[in-house]
Amino acid sequence: MDMLLSKKMSVFFFIGFLLASYGGLDITAIALFGVCVAFVLNFYINNKENNQNPQLAINTLTEGEIDFE
């Protein structure tokens, strides 16, 4: 119940409520829609974090080693 009261999660609660009451969707349809939205948001957030913090290629070769790339 604590997660429901957070500002980030309450938006999804009210969207689900509106879909159920005004959209005429049943709980299973809303759950499947929520899973799809969760995958899209997770993919978007992970790509955004990876683009902001690109890993720099560090040359770790020691003397005498050959880099064949």
What are the SSEs and their pairings?
Elements: H1 7-21, H2 27-52
Membrane topology: Multi-pass membrane protein
Keywords: Cell membrane, Membrane, Phosphotransferase system, Sugar transport, Transmembrane, Transmembrane helix, Transport
Subcellular location: Cell membrane
State the assembly state of the protein chains.
Answer: single chain
Biggest sheet character: none
- Level of helix content? 55-70%
Overall geometric form: elongated
Give the strand tally.
0
Given helix and strand content, the structural type is mainly alpha
Low-pLDDT residue intervals, each spanning 5 or more residues: none
Tell me the span between the first and last alpha carbons: 53 Å
List SSEs in N-to-C order: HH
Rg over alpha carbons? 22 Å
Round the mean pLDDT to the nearest integer and report it: 77
> What percentage of amino acids are in beta strands?
under 5%
- Number of helices in the DSSP assignment: 2
Model description:
There is one protein chain. By secondary structure, the chain is an all-alpha fold. It has a domain of 46 residues. Helices cover 59% and strands 0% of the residues. It contains 2 helices and no strands. The longest helix is centred in the middle third of the chain and has 26 residues. The relative contact order is 0.07. The model has no long low-confidence stretch (mean pLDDT 77).
Q: Short description, anyone?
A:
The protein has helices at 7-21, 27-52. By secondary structure, the chain is mainly α. The radius of gyration is 22 Å and the shape is elongated.
